[in-house]
Amino acid sequence: MVIDLEVEKLSGMKVLMVDDSPTSLDILGHIMGNWGLDISVVTDGQQAINSALENKPDLILLEVRLPRMNGYKVCEILKQDDRTKAIPVIFVSVLTESDDVVKAFAVGGNDYIKKPFEEKEVLARIGTHLSLKKANSEKEQLIKDLDALSRIDLLTKLSNRIDIIEKLEYESSKFERYSKDFSVILCHVDRFKAINDQHGHATGDYVLKEVADVLSRTARKIDHVARWGGGEFLTVLAETKMLGAILAADKLKEAVESHKFEVGTGPLQVTMSFGVSNYAGSGEQIDGLIKVADEFVSKAKGQGGNCVVSM
Questions:
Q1: Rounded to an integer, what distance in angstroms lies between the CA atom of residue 59 and that of residue 289?
Q2: Is the pTM for the entire model greater than 0.85?
Q3: 119 and 219 share one domain
Q4: Residue 132 CB-density burial (10 A; 0-12 exposed, 13-18 middle, 19+ buried)
């Protein structure tokens, strides 16, 4: 049977049974007994809501007739709550009129099993909804993982341009709302093209990874460090005025300069040029903020590199 093939995959999934009938609970527990499910039992409506919020079951088997609060109301409340609305609910009841079934679906129920139970039907319905829940959960996790990957620079494991731009926009909105200053530090590996040309791209990649590590370790925990592209890195300094940003850039410069870069031919001296820009608000665009920092990086390189320019 298809259900037999699904059992192993469903092991460990959480099922909440809500029923005040010991007989019904025993029958359902026996039917699912060999599936390796994590089964919880409550006997009234309010307990069902509390348990669903606390334990986040993968499936709820819900009797309509319950003490304190009927199953319809329980389902309605669960489906209106973002924390529980995705949990599938199968109603189980002795009520067999079509109006009862229609009402179950109207309040958000996913299925309806009539008592007395037919074992094969119960297995098929529970197995189907658990399988769907598992597939949906895996899909949601995959989407989250892909979204996270889309925001990471694969070489350095830092945030990439997409991610850091979102952080810049967040800091910009925070400034407009709370007048919280923020600054950016754009920095570029000095003579990076020469490093690639003379030592090879593998060495260039090594330098970028080492620089990323140095910048990340040196920056404050509240700051965001990202690879901007090529040999460029961008640091967003939250709640930081220009003077604080200049001091932070000096600290980053010294950390890179003093770091030991070891390549096949021996030690490699690596330095960086830094441009510092402070967000002025009043409609300033993020592009303008970065452009100013980029102009300062060019000035720093024009001065021989390994320095910080902020005006």
A1: 50
A2: no
A3: no
A4: middle
